[in-house]
User: Fold this.
Amino acid sequence: MIAFTAAALFTPLERIEQPLLLVEDGSILEVTSRAHREIPANGRVANFPGDTLVPGFIDMHIHGGAGHDVMETNDGALPAMERFLACRGVSSYFPTTVTAPVDMILSSLDRLGHAVETAENSSQAAELRANPLGIHLEGPFISHRRRGVHPAENLLNPTPEMFERFWEASQGQIRVMTIAPELPGAAEVITEAAKRGVCVSLGHSDATLAVARDAVDAGARHSTHTFNAMRPLDHRDPGIIAEVLTDARVSADIIADGIHLDPTMVKLFLKAKGAEQAVLITDATSATGMPDGSYPLGSSNMLVKAGRCMADGRLAGSVLTMDAAVRNVMKFAEWELQQAVRLATLNPARVTRLDTRGTLTPGARADIVVLSPSGEVKNTIIGGAGL
Assistant:
């Protein structure tokens, strides 16, 4: 048994001063205050005075990091990225594909599906690494007009047959799918994916308000990097963004790096979706954690300079880390650390229907991040390991 103590703990819904967090066999046994319970005599003590214990961060949209892309064939790519993520407080993530030739997507889904299965079935890890929990399929079912840097020649209209091919290749490990609802065939694929428990996310879309609302009725329940690669909000033709911001059935994520969205837009978004339905993502690329230069993104390449990832004159993902995103919410929206942490922990866990992640409560997996009062990562524990 390990007994964790610190200055505070965020569950994240509850704040506990002078907490006592008991962990055994990779799971949380008890969460209380030292004012109510003594440290067990048989427990190993991990004390973090002056710091705060929070759940491990969850990134549901990430393409790479530490010089590696999730779609590359190198066997060492995911482990290298996962070690990097753990250092930045991320305990769980959803490797995210980009539009590419179908054969490359299928091959990537096969590799990533096996990686997810291996992580699910493995016991205590020999090294501290973030765990892949499912695949995020971003593209090829997206709008030509709002494709961003996704290659136009590889975009496809959604069909049940093509979705089935992707599903089978992933061994049923697709957990999130970004789709443009205005495409022919989208409604049928949204309905089928939702039946299988996939979080259908509206994104890279030029949809009108009515089309977006119909997609939500069909089973879509989330929004991908809201505002980016979407029909702009207009006061007479509000479009997809109005549906995302006003429909209580829809959760939504943003890239809070100060580049993809002006800080004031981050504040506006958080006022609209609130602490319950807002999610932070990084949309991080292989360049994250690396110096300026040229890096891969799926089947393409991008150039990174001064924090901007560019390809063909367009933004191509980010070099944002989740801990920085949390701190940016504190800065841009003047939120407290506890509020900001929820957007990177409990909320993505609920969106992707993970009952034992994103929370520090009895029965949950012992994924813990130790943060300074300003939100800097001091330590990461994944499945009870990492001390």
